[in-house]
Amino acid sequence: MSSFIVHMTPGSPFGRAVLIALEEKREPWRLAPVAPSAFKTEPHLQRHPFGRVPVLEHGGFLLYETQAILRYLDRVLPNPALTPADAKAAARMDQVMNINDWYLFQGVNTVIGFNRVVKPRLLGLPADEAAIAAAMPKARAVFNELARLLGSAPYFAGDSASLADVLVAPQIDFFRDQPEWAPLTGPHPNLGAWLDRMTARASLRATTWERVQDRAQAA
C-alpha cells in the first residue's frame, strides 16, 4: 500500500498537480476522495482548517497548501528532481508558481473554469457569460505573461519539467476545448505547444478527471 494518501476531489486542478508530481516520481499513491459538500465539515476540517483541498498524508504527517506539498514531495522523493539546480531557473519556477496561485487561479480559473467546466459538469448549471466576459481581460494578461516567460523554452524553468509546469498544466488544461481557448492562446502558439507537451506526459495521462474519478469510486 502506498505511503502517500491524497485527500482531494476529482477534477481539482490543485489536487491533480499533487498527483502529477507523484506520477513524475513514479511513486504509488492512494486517493481519499473528499466531496465538495464535506469541505467545511469534520473530519476534513481537522486536516485542513480552511476547508480546501488537497491535503497530503504521509506516514501520519498531514500537509496542506499545494506549493508546500509539491516542494515536500520533491525533497522526500528527490529523483527525478523537479526543482532546477540553477538559482535563476529555480527563481523563475517560483515566480510562475505564484502567478498560478495569485493570478491564473484567482479571478481567472475561479470564474472561467468554474463557469465553463465545474458548473455544467458538477452542478448542472449554465455558465454566467457576463462573468466570463468580465474575467477575460485578466485572463489575457495572465496568458500573455505566461507565454512571455515561457518564450522558446520547452518548459517554464528551462529544458526539463519543473514544479511550475506541474502546477500550471492542470489549470491551463481547464481551458482546452472551451470558447476562450483560441482567443487566449491564438497569439501564443508556444503556450499551446507547451500544453500539448505536458498533456502527452504519462503523469498527466494518468491523472485526467476521468481516471481520478475511477480511482475515487474504487476507494
SSE inventory with pairings:
Blueprint: E1 4-8, H1 13-24, E2 30-33, H2 44-47, E3 55-58, E4 61-64, H3 66-76, H4 87-123, H5 129-150, H6 163-173, H7 181-185, H8 189-199, H9 202-205, H10 209-218
Parallel strand pairs: 1-2
Antiparallel strand pairs: 1-3, 3-4
In words, what does this structure look like?
With 219 residues, this protein is of the alpha+beta class. The chain folds into two domains: 4-81 and 204-218, Glutaredoxin (3-Layer(aba) Sandwich), CATH 3.40.30; 87-201, Glutathione S-transferase Yfyf (Class Pi), Chain A, domain 2. Helix content is 58%, strand content 8%. The protein has ten helices and four strands; from the N terminus they run βαβαββαααααααα. The chain has helices at 13-24, 44-47, 66-76, 87-123, 129-150, 163-173, 181-185, 189-199, 202-205, 209-218, and strands at 4-8, 30-33, 55-58, 61-64. Strands 2-1-3-4 form a four-stranded mixed β-sheet. Helix 1 links the parallel strand 1 (4-8) and strand 2. Helix 4 (87-123) runs antiparallel to helix 5 (129-150) and helix 4 (87-123) packs parallel to helix 6 (163-173). The longest helix is centred in the middle third of the chain and has 37 residues, at 87-123. The radius of gyration is 17 Å and the shape is globular. It starts with a strand and ends with a helix.
Taken in chain order, the helices and strands follow as EHEHEEHHHHHHHH
In the sheet with the most strands, the strands line up as 2-1-3-4
CATH architecture of the largest domain: Up-down Bundle
Reading off the top of the CATH hierarchy, the class of the largest domain is best stated as Mainly Alpha
**What share of the residues lie within helices?**
55-70%
Supply Rg.
Answer: 17 Å
* Major beta sheet summary: 4 strands, mixed
**For the terminal residues, how far apart are their CA atoms?**
13 Å
Can you count the beta strands?
A: 4
CATH topology of the largest domain: Glutathione S-transferase Yfyf (Class Pi), Chain A, domain 2
Mean pLDDT: 97
Count of alpha/pi helices: 10
β content, as a range? 5-15%
- Low confidence ranges: none
Shape: globular
Structural class assignment: alpha+beta
**Overall tally of structural domains:** 2
